[in-house]
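Memo to structure team: turn this sequence into structure tokens by end of day. - J.P.
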Amino acid sequence: MSDKQKTSNVLGSSLLLASLVLLFIGERAAGTDKLHHALSGLGTLAFVVALGLRIAAFRAAKGDVRAVEARLLASYGGVLLALFAYACSTDAVMDLCKATGEAREHEVIVWSVLWPALMLVSCSALFFMELVYARMPIAASVELRRVRTGAYAGLTLACSAVFVLCINYVATARDVRRDVSYFKTTVPSAGTERMLKKLDAPVRAILFWRKTDDVLRQVEPYFATLHAHAGKLRYEVLDVAMVPELARKNRITSNGFVLLLRGEGDKQKHQAFRVGNELTEARPQLKKLDSVFQQNFAKLARPERAVLLTVGHAERNSKAEDAASGDGTQLLEELWHRLNLKTDTVGLAQGLGSVVPDGSSAVIINGPREKFLPEETAALLSYVRKGGRLLLMIDPDTDDGLAPLLSGLGVERMEGTLASETQHMQHAHDQSDTALVYSNSYSSHPSVTTAARLQNEVATVFVRGAALRKGIANNLTPKPNVTFSLRSGPMFFRDVNGNWKHDHEEAEESMNMIAAVTVSEKPGAPEGRAVIIGDGDFMTDKIGSNNGNVMVFVDSIAWLVGNEELSAEVSSEEDVPLPHTRDQDKLWFYATTFAMPMPVLGIGLWVARRRRRRAEASS
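Reply from structure team:
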């Protein structure tokens, strides 16, 4: 054999491919027996010729070329075995072997799985070897190692595909489904279970889905757990098409809804919420299913309460056009719905200059930036001392006219803005971030019950907040009882000059951030309650989504209105952004930029150098 020419070319493999196409058309697409036999016979002839060419090339080859031809011939043998396995799966061969019943069915399944696997493995190895072999024009250039590597690549790819197909087949046969995406449905929280145990009448939950729906598989375990821990809740699964009257009566238009029913007959109450009929649509709701259930259950089982929001002083809840950017309260509006609280406004137009209107559970002052009139503060103070409930969220160094009200409640707002050079968040990446502080030093007061229980997991955030202290209450009778429910760490200071830096005259100390007050007009009179939070941005969209803020706010509302069930915690699987301090950001940057890639790069260089030395030694 000449060193300038190979004994093999792609003609044999081309004929092999043509034979397989003809056999496929003849066996699967031919419309008549005549065409079927003609195409199958032509395909068989083409395969025999291709196999003959490959055998001849193998016999004429020498050295490395012969070794390559042997591997190619082995691939042809694999194709031949695959065709034999296909023939064994046909009815003609099964009839010839007299296979019947269940045994025949099992044999057909085995052969039907075996022949595509053999065909895929053989053809994949053949294709990769021919691809490499075609780049070696003469016998002297043939490198067995490269051809062998190509064969391994083809075999790896084909075997991986066969493995995946087999797993899919087994999973389909056994009806096994697994969602490996980062997703999890919430489970009932302890707060939800406590709410259900206090029911005085059973609640019926109807899950409107077909029994085969993927969403139902996520929803049903939640209600099964509630039923197991609180027997007063019963649930059932119904298809909306099977109960048209029930669906029409409760305004259910399609599957994908949860309907809660309480009572019977004309006194029956209902509450429905939509989760979704497709898993991609339902995932956002499933991640917060416990919260959605609590919100709707509250509307069904608890009477609606009303709170008044003061207006007319540029409060954060104001809808005025001059409201500062980022001071929106969309999150707070959603919270009112979950707590089943109805909100209304109160200001001078509603008589706040003389008295707080009756009929509300509490009054909320949400970060005012303009001055209250003395008559308004006097009316609010009188309201609290007569048994009213008040929640104040106030800013530092703001002329809001609330000093007399705070003094009457036994609290004083200290000068300067709360800041810390260590316990602060990273937001603007400049010196002003020192005023974005956090703390988890909660007391045992009922207004911070949930946050105190989870203080190792959550913290409350203040944006340019104020420090509080007890005021001079010598002239107040009876004296207010003041408890500070949240304190800062010892490394906080009050930034008085507004430069966001810890100056020498600004002492570091632990400061009070939230105060809870009880007071009454006279001994034995109804107890008034107030919660004072030293941050007007406490529940704005800037930080209102922080769990530590939400827990404190809900607990405070619950304590004020005397309904601790409002503060029932919820479980959630929603993704929450993780804020970092400046030092933590630096650590993550250097770790991901240098600490992790450098070892990998070093190992790669070591392996490459070792391979190079081995190649040089062998050559």
